[in-house]
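Incident review: delayed structure delivery

Summary: a single-chain prediction request sat in the queue longer than the usual turnaround. Root cause was a stuck worker, restarted by the on-call engineer. No data loss occurred. The affected request and its eventual output are reproduced below so the record is complete for anyone auditing the incident later.

Affected input:
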Amino acid sequence: MKPDIPPSPWDPPPPTPPSSGPAWPQAPGPAWPQGPGSGRPPQAGGPGWQTPPPGPVPPSGPVRAGAGARYDQQGRNGQGGRFAWLGELSLVLLLAVVGILVVSGIGAVLAEVLDAGPASADSEVFFEDPVADMALQLVGIAIGIPIVLWGARYLGRRPAGTVSSVLGRLRWKWLGLCAAVAFPLIIVQFGVMFAWTWGEESTEPAGDGFPGWTAFLVSLAVLAALVPFQAAAEEYVFRGWLVQVIGRAVRSPWPAVVLASLLFALAHGFGELTGFILLFYSALWWGWLVIRTGGLEAVVTLHVANNLLAFGLAAGFGELASTETAADAPWQAMVVEFVFAPLYCLGIVWLAKRREVERVSP
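Output delivered after worker restart:
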């Protein structure tokens, strides 16, 4: 019987017993260390390994609505829970109010620093110059665009571009085609209105008259730079983001369109009943047009054309300081709108069908 001799460190390792399956060849070279600090990810079950939480992994970026979703359904991406739309609605409206207050505060400071404020302390304007005061008002409305796009992206957790259209972007070629229809139509509409009311005392200009070419051209430049953003902001807020937020909670687009149209009319102030009816009636048609064309392009171009012509005429007659809005429109304007609003909307829908413009998410 041999005595037990301890193994020498120089002895070769004992042979490994064969496994039940076939042996896989091993690649030559040194063995890589595993675990933290080794430069290689830890093996499952080994030191440094963390078991992932059970269940599906939530997406890290924005999530779009499913294929075939209408424009008003773009917020239905399954993010945030059943009542998340209330949080998005509340916070965005709060940010809009804060934004308007910030712009107003900046305007008040500039007017004080530049000594450009009104002569009367009881005046409701910030600047004595009506062009500067109008510019401040337009900027105060235009900030609605970044606010609602931010709300859609970070509160609604969807691509901000889905507020523009079902393709997730502004369709520039389609926008240009709509503008080619909207601008001539608005000119004809204004012409019909002037021809109908010519000579009536209630429709005569009440401003200071033509301000001179220099002041007029400066006014046109300021209006051309800011009015498109102001008009587009109203569409992005009322026909766009608001409809999509309400669309997260209702199946039909009509509750959202009707409520947004009512708020749009009220946002212009309380004037004549005919003006309120005109605004509400137009907004209903425009809301329908957005759903039928899958985006805001057609209503943005019409709104921009209308406001550019209206503000341009006001600048020419020296009426930029007037506090009247579309809510003060006479009954003749309401009747003309009864004809031209459906004329434009039905024509654009026909054109969209011919051009195969996308109405739903691809």
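Verification: Residues 213-247 form the longest helix (35 residues).
Action items: add queue-age alerting; document worker restart procedure.
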